Every structure is written in structure tokens, then in C-alpha cells.
Amino acid sequence: MGAGMMNATTMLSRTADSLYWLGRYVERAENSARLLDGAHHLNLLPLTSEEQNQLWRKLFQSENEIQAFMEKHNQFTDKNVIEFLTLDKDNPSSILSCIAGARDNTRAARAELTTEISQCMNQTWIDIRGVTMQNIDERGIQDFLDFVKERAHLFKGVIYGTMRRGEPFLFWELGTALERAENTSRLIMTRADAFHRVHRRDDGFDFYRWGTFLRSANAYSAYRQIYGDIDPVSVAEMLILNTNIPRSLLACIEDTTEILKTLRREAPCAEMSERLAAEIRAIRLDQILRSGLDNFLNDFRKQVHALSDQIRIDFMMVR
Length: 319
Fold this sequence. Notes:
The protein has helices at 3-42, 49-57, 63-70, 78-86, 95-108, 115-129, 133-139, 141-162, 167-189, 205-216, 220-226, 232-241, 249-264, 268-282, 285-291, 293-316. The chain is mainly α. The longest helix has 40 residues, at 3-42.
């Protein structure tokens, strides 16, 4: 391979990496807004202080993130958690940090993006960097979360409406699908213990909680159309195995598999993704619940992390 070809390949890998992370960061910002939205509504219910503490604590992805939070705050209150997950510049997973990461990757991959895409991201960054916690307190957290979700939808719409279909578009789709899979597993994990609950409250409390949970996955209307009455086991079935729901685990991994096979069918990451999809298709929900939903979700997330690493090795020369 000549020097010119090597430089071109390196440039393409970097661009692919930027588009992949552009998809992940925008999806992550939207999903963080959805998780916070759900927790905010559940926090309006008559909960004990311990239940409130657990509600906000479950929004964190890892022990490292909890440790980073505890270095700044001593309690999992709504105010502390909202500040950490929305505008904290030191938290790499905050909504502000995700939008900053998306903007950086938009600039890095601008040769493959349309002017409308760059303008949409720049305006979103300008608007969000001007938001303060005082603004959120005055206007309400709901107003801010709606803003983040609307901008994410607008950005995706501009990409779908203006971007040429080809490898750059596929790498953006790939990042979006894999991030969505990880976030749906994170959402299910926030209520993993409740899917086994035998005794349910029939005073509307459970209906409101599960309705809020489904809205966090943008799946409430779809659930009611498919299943009718809300039942925790059916909720789990839909979010894990129903391929008609775009945020279900199986739908996300099947999307990922199709994209990878289109990019390079014989790539190790394509085979890895296909194996994961086959594993999920083969398992029944009662097996998952019997062996432990939290075990299933932890294993799923480990496999998604490994798949992401392999994608970057296969396509982006990252080792």
C-alpha cells in the first residue's frame, strides 16, 4: 500500500469514527433526557425518602459514575442529580457534554455532512451552552428536557432528509442503533426488580408508574395498541424481544447487524452482532426472568461494549 493510499485510509477511518460518535452522542443526550423525564414524573408520586433516593440513584450507568457524582454531591436528591446529568461540564455523560461531543464530531466530519446538518448542530450547541441551572429552576426541568428531545428529533430529521445515502450515513446510523440498545437496557435496569413483583397496587399507582416508564422509551402508545392493559411481563417482552418497537433490544441489535453486513459482511464485528441477535431471538422471556433479568441485562451490556470495541477495531483502526 502506497503512502497516499495509507493517508486516505486513515482519513476515512477518522471520519467514520466521528460519524459513529456523532450518532452515539445525540442518541445519548436524547435518552438521558427521557430517563430524567421519567424520574421527574415518578418523583411526583407519594414516595418515601428511601424510594426517592433509589429512584434518582438508578439513573447512573456505573459505579464510576456514582463515585464521580458523590465527589460533588452527598445525596441523590432531584436537584443534585438533575444538575449532574444535565449541565455538569465535568461529567462526560451529561447532556451538555454529549451535545459538545456531537458538535466536535460534526465539525470533524463536516466534509461528509450537509450545510443544514452543521447549522442545526451549531444552533443546538449555541442554545444549550447558554442554559444555566437558574434557567432550569425558573422554567422547570420539563421545559429543558422537551427542548433536548425536540432538538435531537430535529437533528435526526435533517440528517435523514439531506444526507446522501452511503458509508458515512451508515456509520451515523450504526452509532445511533448501538447507543439506543445500550440505553434501552439501562432503562429496563432501572426497574429490573419490579418485573418480578407479585403484589401490585390497584389504586392507579402502578398504572401511572408503568405508563411513565413506557413513555421514557417512547413506547406507551405502541404498548397500548399491541397489549392493551399494562402488565410488567408484557412490558419486558416488548422492550426486549418485540422487533416492531424500534427501541427494543432485539430491534436495535438486528438493525446493527444489517448495517454491519452492508458495510462489510465478513467483518468480525458483523459476525459478533449476528451471534448476539441470534442469542436474543432464541431465548424466551420466562427464561430471562427465571435466571434473573439483571443478569441478562448485565451480560447484554457487556456484549454491546465488546461489539462497539470490535467495530472500532474493524473500521476505525482503534486498538
